[in-house]
Amino acid sequence: MATVQEKAMCVLWFFETKSVITTQCRFRNTYKKDPPSDNSIRRWLTQFQETDSVLHRKGAGRPSTSQENVDSIQETFNRSPRKSTRQAAVQLHMPHTTIRNVLHNRLHLNAYKVQIVQALHPIDKPRRFDFAEQILTRLEDDENYLRKWFFSDESTFHVSGKVNKHNCRIWGSKNPHDYRELERDSPKVNVWCALSHTEVIGPFFFAETTLNSVTYLDMLEMYAVPQMQQHQPDVIFQQDGAPPHWGMIVRDFLDENFPDRWCGRGGPIPWPPRSPDITPLDFFL
């Protein structure tokens, strides 16, 4: 639940930028946690416009939920912490809003998202440390260094049903750190995108269901690189260590078009493997 200060800052940022997405990005950068929803920000804005305050004003309201109902809700989620609040509402014959209010305000439980993560290897930490030190050294010499970067990545969208992290919640007082593995053989479409300080290139949808060095190089030559060089003459291009990026034809092309200015596996600026948390694409796209 957002504090009064966090609500006030969201209202201020929205007035400054007129953008919910920008407000959410600033919230994430400032408070280092998931931002409030679009509806929450707009509700606080409306409340401020109507009352000149984001403070919650308690009214007479309905009678509080009985302890018997609170105990029933707690028992239900102790047995099945993955149960949705709507399923519990049907089972217990209570309003959906009552279930949520009791979970948040009486039982002080939180809804945790299922996370899909990548396994780390022992060598990964020193490589990530070396990369961070190198970037910090470059920034000491040129404070605009990162503004020259284009970070890139592909994402696979599965046509078949997958875990919906938005709707899949586990209710509890502590994060259970629940994970799900991906099946990689279902129908899918591959999408590429690149992001700089000021520009977004893409999305580019690959016609091929399986990427290789040839199809990836075609995309770079015909689509991505001309646009990047148009925006930034001395651009630094980043890619991760995916197999299509490792082909000799790809590395030769990058050496020719970005001499000493590309970051990736086997590149002049080594990219630490298994580091999606370093690239801004995972946070702003």
TrEMBL record:
Residues 63-79 have a biased composition (Polar residues). Residues 3-53 form the DUF4817 domain. One of its GO terms (molecular function) is nucleic acid binding. Residues 56-84 are annotated as: Disordered. Pfam families: DUF4817. InterPro entries: DUF4817, RNaseH_sf. Gene3D superfamilies: Ribonuclease H-like superfamily/Ribonuclease H. PANTHER family: HTH PSQ-TYPE DOMAIN-CONTAINING PROTEIN (PTHR47326:SF1), TRANSPOSABLE ELEMENT TC3 TRANSPOSASE-LIKE PROTEIN (PTHR47326). This is DUF4817 domain-containing protein. It comes from Araneus ventricosus.
